[in-house]
Amino acid sequence: MAGLNYTTRDKALWIALLALCLASAAAYVLWALPAMPETVPTHWGADGAADGWGDKGSTLFMGVAMPLLMLALLFAVPHLDPRGGSFNHFKGIYQGFSAAFTVFMVVAAWITPLSALGALPTTGVPIVNIIVFGFMGLLLVGLGIVMPRIEPNYTFGVRLPWTLADPENWRRTHRFAGPVFVVMGVATVASALFSSTAPELMLVAMLVALLGGVALVALYSFLLWKGVVR
Length: 230
Description:
This protein has 230 residues and is mainly alpha-helical. It has helices at residues 8-35, 60-80, 91-109, 111-116, 127-146, 161-165, 167-193, 199-226, and strands at residues 39-44, 50-55. Strands 1-2 form a two-stranded antiparallel sheet.
């Protein structure tokens, strides 16, 4: 079965990520869940204030299962991809992304309990937006920096009909996408930091940057395939 060739160090990384998720899940079930009130914040608006509430039991999936499921998916992807062997050429990038995303999922899992217990504010400073969108923005910046080094595969990177059909289209599209993703990431971080000033405007600006960036990369790849861009 195609996939990553693991060194001892690689195995240690995945074991550490699994241990992090299991420790987080245990702490959530044994400490956070009993300590939380019956009704807890489950959704936050553009201004960072909690605007949705639910039963604490409903948070178990996001708080316990989701980080473990995402880690399992990230581990499985190179083994399920028909071109999984190519992951070995950018193994450090993929494992770095997997580690960062797993940490993000664990952090996100604790937003509700920490808010319910008063450690995070539910009004005023948009700390939740700063955590979530700030982390997402940094992930996009990181991806943008390494994007040109991602080799053709079916599950990680800019996967379009034209990039998958032509290795040269893949290479040039990812080289083009790198700076675009960096700009998208910076825009996302900026939107998070300034969300308390004009929350709706910042949300719109972030969505425009993200959707516009994705559309621009797709258009470039298409025009490259059609021969309009050389």
